[in-house]
Amino acid sequence: MKTFIKASFLLTIVVLWAGSAVPLWASTPVTIFDNTTHDLSTRFNPGTLQVGDQIIMDTATPWARYITDFSFEYYGVGFNVNNPSQFSGNVQADVQFYLNNGSTFNGYAMPGTSFWNSGWFSTGLAPTSRSTLDFSVTGGDFTSGGVFLPASEFTWTVQFRGMTAGDVVGLDIYSPPSVGQDYKDYWQNNGGWQLMTNGAVSSMDFAARIQAQAVPEPSTITFSILGGLTILTLARRLRRKE
Fold first, then answer.
1. Three-state DSSP class for 9?
2. How far is CA 232 from the centre of its chain?
3. pLDDT beyond 60 at 116
């Protein structure tokens, strides 16, 4: 019976994977951080300062090291009397991902090495009671394999500029995360990084969500015919985890 089952399984594989080298395994993005559930009904106006949230990825998925999707929530108030759907000024934003490997502030490592930068953009920014800005592989914001995440925690930052005549752009505060972890304070860059808190809320955690995937080299299956026997070779090649 065991021999029969093995032979049938072998035949099935040959039929299903008819080819000289066929990928057997594909990576599926998973959520490694999610702070979009618990709305504290609080809004944060950073003005034109660069502000950042240092976050910790979900420990249940340490293999998901390539970010495929990042989104965060913002609000905007415009004062354009001719077109309420637009800001008065040329409002722009810049988003960056930093390793916390810089010098220290009160004993905590500051944002140091930037490993992804959106560059200044205005597309998608408009007066809104609440909207989400999304960056993804499919949208062309990240490379096809995703942005490599070098550490289990990092700081994502956003900075706004170009607001005039009553324009306001800011972030929504949520806490605690439903996936991953978040620190209660936030980073602010005003000529240098500082850790900040706000007495209005217990946690200054910005609403954001991240998905990531493992990016292995494809597993392949090859077969050949030798003397009427099918010989299968299964090769699974995974990238070494950094």
1. helix
2. 39
3. yes
User: Which CATH entry fits the domain spanning 27-215: 2.60.120, 2.30.30, 1.10.8, 2.60.40?
Assistant: 2.60.120
Q: How far is CA 162 from the centre of its chain?
A: 26
Q: State the Cα–Cα distance between residues 212 and 31, nearest whole angstrom.
A: 6
Using CA atoms, how far apart are residues 135 and 141, in angstroms rounded to an integer? 6
* Cross-strand partners of 33: 210
The residue type of 35 is N
Task: Give the containing element (helix H, strand E) for 158.
Answer: strand 153-161
Burial class of residue 169 in the structure, from the number of CB atoms within 10 Å of its CB (0-12 exposed, 13-18 middle, 19+ buried):
buried
CB-based contacts of 57, cutoff 8 Å, min separation 6: 32, 33, 64, 149, 152, 153, 180, 210, 212
Give the tens place of pLDDT for each residue, 12-45. Answer: 333 333 343 434 334 799 999 999 999 999 999 9
CATH 2.60.120-classified regions of the chain: 27-215
Can you give the pTM of this predicted structure?
0.78
pLDDT in tens, 123-158: 999 999 999 999 999 999 999 999 999 999 999 999
How many Cβ atoms are within 10 Å of 28's Cβ, its own excluded? 10
pLDDT single digits (tens) 39-92: 999 999 999 999 999 999 999 999 999 999 999 999 999 988 888 889 999 999
CB half-sphere exposure, 29, CA atoms < 13 A:
18
CA angle, residues 212, 124, 196, in degrees to nearest 5: 65
